[in-house]
């Protein structure tokens, strides 16, 4: 029976999209991620992430759109879910929860006070399970620092109260970029993100594409109107509109099982040496100006182990190490300025160094290092 359950869980994993896998890995490790795409597809990316949160994992998401004038109050209010207010019953003005009637002989002021005292006080707003910070790199420095404190302490302070993040909490920075690479956020916040993923719009967005393919199209509409509907931002059906959402693909218990399996993964000493060699070669690469931090090394080790159960393994393979390196260091590596490249200290020509570094990005550095470091046999 256990083997059958494992096969069923692995089948679910294999059916996930790349965005869903990035979300799952972050939830398993209880870390946070950075997701980017082309500038024209950021709206679709955030909507897709919301659908992933609700339909794949059954979590409550919010989207907060950041810009240069976002304030700390805006950020704090944007990550909170509205409290579930309950509608008053028709007789709420004449009886309380204990079934006791309010005397009609009371004055109007006294009766109103008695009625209000019997109403249930709504709970305070809670931080959403999944916070999608759209264009976080455009937010002021103070807001980015506030986001970092939220990730570090799992709490946020407002003018009147302190809000604590729920048990299942995921913060996703959704930014625009022409390709994968370092995000323009404060370095400490950038380093705190567990992994990064760049979504190619050409590959589509699974849930949004499914909604569009299954939508009703008027036979009288022409192709132009059909094409224009692709650019419309889809609304995510809430719990009170449309039919109820189906059960999530992944339950909390299944995410917990993957987290437990991660703790049981074995890493051979040769694979560990290979992993550390990659870190050393990245740090010493001539095009790297920084970003290979101790936090990155910790996340590297953590992600390597988290990938193994998703492939049905209880041990780490060299190929999983290479895959993890691409996800952990993609947004962290800072490219060196040509005038600061180390060979300049030995008399290299600046024009020659500029020619060597021209067009080289984090993806190229990682591929170069993976090609140089010998894999264990």
UniProtKB/TrEMBL annotation:
Annotated ranges, domain ChlI/MoxR AAA lid: 283-340
EC id: 6.6.1.1
GO MF, one example: magnesium chelatase activity
Chain positions covered by the region annotation Disordered: 216-247
Domain of life: Eukaryota
Biased composition (Low complexity): 225-243
Pathway(s) per entry: Porphyrin-containing compound metabolism
Record InterPro entries: ChlI/MoxR_AAA_lid, Nucleic_acid_metab_PIN/TRAM
Record-linked PANTHER family: AAA FAMILY ATPASE, C2H2-TYPE DOMAIN-CONTAINING PROTEIN
Name this protein carries in UniProt: magnesium chelatase
């Amino acid at each position: 029976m256990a083997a059958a359950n494992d096969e069923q869980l692995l089948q679910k994993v294999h059916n996930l999209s790349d965005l869903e896998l990035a979300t799952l890995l972050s939830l398993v490790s209880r870390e946070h991620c950075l997701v980017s795409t082309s500038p024209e597809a950021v709206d679709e990316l955030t909507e897709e992430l919301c659908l992933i949160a609700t339909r794949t994992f059954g979590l409550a998401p919010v989207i907060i759109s950041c810009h240069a004038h976002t304030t700390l109050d805006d950020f704090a209010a944007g990550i909170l879910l509205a409290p579930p207010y309950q509608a008053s019953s028709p007789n709420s003005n004449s009886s309380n929860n204990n079934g006791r009637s309010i005397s009609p002989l009371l004055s109007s002021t006294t009766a109103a006070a008695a009625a209000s005292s019997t109403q249930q006080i709504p709970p305070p707003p809670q931080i959403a399970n999944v916070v999608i910070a759209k264009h976080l790199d455009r937010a002021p420095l103070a807001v980015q620092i506030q986001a970092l404190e939220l990730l570090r302490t799992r709490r946020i302070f407002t003018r009147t109260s302190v809000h604590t993040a729920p048990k299942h909490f995921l913060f996703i920075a959704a930014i625009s970029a022409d390709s994968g690479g370092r995000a323009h956020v404060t370095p400490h916040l950038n380093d705190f993100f567990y992994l990064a993923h760049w979504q190619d719009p050409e590959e589509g967005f699974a849930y949004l594409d499914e909604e569009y393919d299954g939508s009703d199209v008027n036979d009288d509409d022409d192709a132009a109107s059909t094409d224009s509907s692709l650019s419309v931002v889809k609304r995510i059906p809430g719990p009170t509109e449309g039919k109820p959402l189906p059960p999530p693909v992944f339950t909390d218990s299944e995410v917990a099982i993957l987290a437990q399996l991660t703790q049981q993964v074995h890493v051979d000493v040769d694979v560990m040496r290979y992993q550390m060699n990659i870190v050393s070669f990245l740090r010493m690469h001539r095009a790297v100006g920084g970003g290979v931090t101790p936090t990155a090394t910790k996340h590297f080790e953590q992600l390597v182990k988290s990938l193994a159960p998703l492939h049905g393994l209880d041990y780490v393979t060299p190929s999983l190490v290479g895959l993890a390196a691409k996800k952990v260091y993609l947004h962290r590596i800072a490219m060196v300025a040509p005038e600061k490249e180390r060979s300049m200290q030995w008399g290299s020509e600046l024009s020659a160094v500029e020619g060597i570094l021209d067009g080289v990005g984090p993806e190229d550095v990682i591929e170069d290092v993976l090609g140089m470091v010998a894999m264990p046999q």
